[in-house]
Amino acid sequence: MKLNPYLDIAPEVRAALEAGKPVVALESTIISHGMPYPQNVETALNVERIVRENGAVPATIAIIGGRLKAGLSEEEITYLGKKGYDVTKASRRDLPVLVARGADGATTVATTMIVAAMAGIRVFATGGIGGVHRGAEITMDISADLEELAQTGVLVVCAGAKSILDLGLTLEYLETKGVPVIGYQTSELPAFYTRKSGFGVDYRLDTPGEIAAAFRAKMDMGLAGGMLVTNPIPEEYSMDPDVINRAIDEAVEEAKAQGIHGKQTTPFLLAKIKDITGGDSLASNIRLVYNNAELAAKIAAQL
């Protein structure tokens, strides 16, 4: 476990790491920017419970008062949930200023990976990763999540890339960066709200043990970067592809019309899609996060 003067590791998480027990990192953007209070806090606490039920210790990650936190108390999770959008959505570029100012930050996939790696946590469960945005050949809007996967040695369990993105270009980018994209019990990249995208993954692996063995081999060989494990949303919570794709197209057009760009893009699109689908997309989002937490805990236990 690395010692970092800016990092606080919760006692339960520290004890688990020192004892070699499985730990799963969890992000905090979903708390502050993913859904309204109190649903955000309920969801975060449920995700932690699911990790525990599957044999691992949860470590929700955030920046509070300028301190990098690996493991939050229920009070700290509630604090982030109540502050909501007043908390900075923090990617790698934001960390130095937030820490220096003693400010709060909700961690994206990229920053959760950074803090997890500092703490010695190797497995992380999220909803969906960021990626190459539609029209990126003009805007150059490419998520920092992809760069982090290329350089930080953390295994990320997700439900694929968010279907608001250009999934083909996202896969090409990951291939260029040497990031293995694994399908858990599937050969097709899931598209967040739906189980299929029409794009293939690099490898299909069918058990948590197989995934853990592949990641262990990657680490043992000293290969830089992480591994992306894509876990399809459970069938009963999957949305109709036509319905969700129409909602996405409408949301993307509205974002363009309003000049939404940068880190505001994803929260705007997800909120708009929720409105268009009458809340169905949010319900699916919650269920896929629960599903990913369960798989991540099982992989961590094998690792």
What key attributes describe this structure?
alpha/beta, 13 helices, 303 residues, 11 strands, single chain
Overall form: globular
Low-confidence stretches: none
Q: End-to-end span in angstroms?
A: 16 Å
In terms of DSSP E residues, the strand content is 5-15%
Mean pLDDT: 92
Number of strands: 11
Count of runs of 4 or more consecutive helical residues? 13
**Structural class given helices, strands, pairing?**
alpha/beta
**Rounded radius of gyration (Å):** 18 Å
**Topology as a string of helices (H) and strands (E):** EHEHHEEHEHEHEHHEHEEHEHHH
Explain what the structure shows.
With 303 residues, the protein is of the alpha/beta class. It is built from 13 helices and eleven strands. Strands 1, 2, 3, 4, 5, 6, 7, 8, 9, 10 and 11 form an eleven-stranded mixed sheet that branches. Strand 5, helix 5 and strand 6 form a beta-alpha-beta unit. The relative contact order is 0.14. The model has no long low-confidence stretch (mean pLDDT 92).
In brief:
The protein is built from 13 helices and eleven strands. The chain is α/β, with parallel strands linked by helices and 303 residues long. β3 and β4 form a beta hairpin.
Question: Helices, strands, pairings?
Answer:
Blueprint: E1 7-9, H1 11-18, E2 23-26, H2 29-32, H3 39-53, E3 57-64, E4 67-70, H4 74-83, E5 88-90, H5 95-101, E6 105-107, H6 109-119, E7 123-125, H7 136-139, H8 144-151, E8 155-158, H9 167-176, E9 181-184, E10 203-205, H10 208-220, E11 227-230, H11 241-258, H12 265-276, H13 280-302
Parallel strand pairs: 1-4, 2-3, 2-7, 5-6, 7-8, 8-11, 9-10, 9-11
Antiparallel strand pairs: 3-4, 3-6
Helix pairs in contact: 3-4, 3-13, 6-8, 10-13, 11-12
